Amino acid sequence: MDADFHALKDDLRRRMRARRRDLAAIDPGAVEAAALHLPLDDLPPAAVVAGYHALGSEFSPWPVLRRLADRGARIALPVAMDMSSPLIFRAWSADQAMEADATRIPSPTEDAETLVPQLLIAPLLAFDLDGYRLGQGGGYYDRTIAALRAKGPLFVIGLGYAGQQVERAPREAHDQPLDAILTENGYHRVRT
């Protein structure tokens, strides 16, 4: 890809971060509304569900994770071991100790059990209805989704505000599509 494409992606990231901050301020109840739209009976079976630790105005996955935990799923959070490897996932519970990972995001400590999720809740800056997402730019989720899909079934739900939808998210060959998108306005299944 050329420099113009990457400049356009960087510009879109900047604009979408500002939009996300505005959306978070306008609708603080959006995270609870999104959780209510999650179609529990239509999701593939998943003994382990991975979420993420929301930072700043990121859409919080906790209401969604609580609903899945209430159905018996174990909850895991990502851990970045370094800047170029796929994320790993460690078991999380309310009393779990946390420490900063390689990206300085709070993550379960190394004494927590390492798990492999079958359902992954992914953060995003922007998404389109073809199931492509724009992330923060580190490539962590694309690397991780590709690695997990190579090991077995994985269902990925992008979580965000409806206002983060764009007509077409910029994409490259390594970008991994979502299976579904969940917002405060509803649930959209992308892939069957």
Describe the structure.
With 192 residues, the protein is an alpha/beta fold. Helix 3 links the parallel strand 1 and strand 2 (74-79). The protein has one domain (3-189): 3-Layer(aba) Sandwich (Rossmann fold). Helix 2 packs parallel to helix 3. Helices cover 28% and strands 22% of the residues. It is globular. The strands form three sheets. The chain has an eight-stranded mixed sheet, sandwiched between helices. The mean pLDDT is 95. The protein has four helices and twelve strands; from the N terminus they run ααβαββββββββαβββ.
Proper CATH architecture: 3-Layer(aba) Sandwich
User: What is the CA–CA distance across the termini?
Assistant: 30 Å
Quaternary organisation: single chain
Can you summarize the main beta sheet? 8 strands, mixed
Helix content: 25-40%
What would you say about this model in short?
The protein is α/β, with parallel strands linked by helices and 192 residues long. The chain has four helices and twelve strands; from the N terminus they run H-H-E-H-E-E-E-E-E-E-E-E-H-E-E-E. The strands form three sheets. The chain has an eight-stranded mixed β-sheet with strand order 6-3-2-1-7-10-11-12, with helices on both faces. The protein has a two-stranded antiparallel sheet with strand order 4-5. Strands 8-9 form a two-stranded antiparallel ribbon.
